[in-house]
Amino acid sequence: MIKLLDLLHRWCGGLLGLILTILGLSGAILVHKEEWIGLPHASDVRVTDPSQLGRLAEQLLGGAKGGESLVFASDRFGLVQLREGAHGLYATQRGEVIARWSSLWERPELWLFDLHHHLFTGDVGETVVGVAGLAAIVFAVTGTILWWRTRRTFRFRLWPSRMTGPAIRMQHRDLGIIAAPLLLLLALTGTMMIFRPVAGAVLAPLTFPAAIEADLKAPKFAVEPLAPHLDWQAIISAAHDAFPTAELRILAVPKKPGDPVTIRMKQSAEWLPNGRTMLWFDPADGRLLGSRDATRMQVGTQAFNMAYPIHAGKVGGLVYRLLLTAVGLALAMLGSFSVWSFWFCKKQRQAASRPLPRRARGGPER
After folding, report:
1. What's residue 360's pLDDT?
2. In which band, very low, low, confident or very high, does the pLDDT at 5 lie, cut at 50, 70 and 90?
3. CB burial of residue 277 (10 Å; 0-12, 13-18, 19+)
4. Are the C-beta atoms of residues 284 and 225 closer than 8 Å to each other?
5. pLDDT category, 35, cuts 50, 70, 90?
């Protein structure tokens, strides 16, 4: 059984190690993106006055044609982001444009996010990332089992003593057991967000999966097409009146006729950085159609909403983000060294085991 686990662990590591390296490195960088974006006014204090936020929305969404989304400033990032497909801009909370882009390649935080979540290949890449996440869970469990046999030889090593197979495996084993608990948590939360059945299985003791799906499903409304000059200030004022203590996070203009205007808000009890408290408005006249209080969702749904902030370091402050950085770098090291030892050290062993020519062994020339 142990030999089978060891074989499974090595082969999966050799095949998926490069993907895990990419996920570890990109995640370690993204967890601090609010600090390294480095644009002017990025450290501005978040505006909370609904009338000022309404004027800002009027300024940036005036003449909206559909598909735009406005992400308001947060406590960690003082700029507003307007996105429309691949195009977008950052603006101050007074409406002054700071930076524009017409492709995600023009902003490192955008292409890094796409790399981490989709491997630059859309839905297919997201599925591959999910499979890699499931593999990481298996690695954490099987690696712990395999480590237990050699626990008495444990020694903390950040780097292998030599770039040979045995030395790399010793470093991999002992670094892996240190990173395993948090790595397991990150792999599990990441996989839960990609594969909803995984989330349903994990949260089933709290809430039936069907109830979670019902909590997260957007309601359907019969609405008219988007009006050319919608009163965005009135919409934001109505959202504030519905949830006076909540933080305004995202205003999304419908992409196609028949969809409502959507606002996401974050209440103090929510961990999700953009919240899951939702409001829907008629795009023709701006009247409130319905709302959903995230704090009244099923227990399992509220637990699911915690997966992303735990995975991305949106809770726990700087200390937790530094821990995630360390685990991301450890994952990158574990993945890259797995690939190296599996594919290259194996060739070295095979070359060393080949018999030498007779002349090299001191035999007579023929």
Report:
1. 46
2. low
3. buried
4. yes
5. very high
pLDDT at 11 over 80: no
Q: How far is residue 300's CA from residue 199's CA, in Å, rounded to a whole number?
A: 9
Q: Which residues contact 283 (CB under 8 A, 6 or more apart)?
A: 223, 224, 225, 226, 227, 230, 253, 254, 259, 260, 261
Q: What is the pLDDT of residue 352?
A: 43
Q: What is the 3-state secondary structure (H, E, C) of the chain?
A: CHHHHHHHHHHHHHHHHHHHHHHHHHHHHHCCHHHHCCCCCCCCCCCCCHHHHHHHHHHHHCCCCCCCEEECCCCCCCCEEEEECCEEEEECCCCCEEEEECCHHHCHHHHHHHHHHHCCCHHHHHHHHHHHHHHHHHHHHHHHHHHHHCHHHCCCCCCCCCCCHHHHHHHHHHHHHHHHHHHHHHHHHHHHHHCHHHHHHHHCCCCCHHHHHHHHCCCCCCCCCCCCCCCHHHHHHHHHHHCCCCEEEEEECCCCCCCCEEEEEECCCCCCCCCCEEEEECCCCCCEEEEECHHHCCHHHHHHHCHHHHHHCCCCHHHHHHHHHHHHHHHHHHHHHHHHHHHHHHHHHHHHHCCCCCCCCCCCCC
With contact defined as beta carbons under 8 Å apart, do 253 and 225 qualify? no
* Percent of the chain topping pLDDT 70: 90
Structure tokens, 252 = 């999304």
Do 343 and 61 touch, CB atoms closer than 8 A?
no
- Please compute the mean of the pLDDT values over residues 217-231 and round it to a whole number: 91
In single-letter form, the type of residue at position 46 comes to R
Which pLDDT belongs to residue 343? 72
- The pTM for the full model equals 0.88
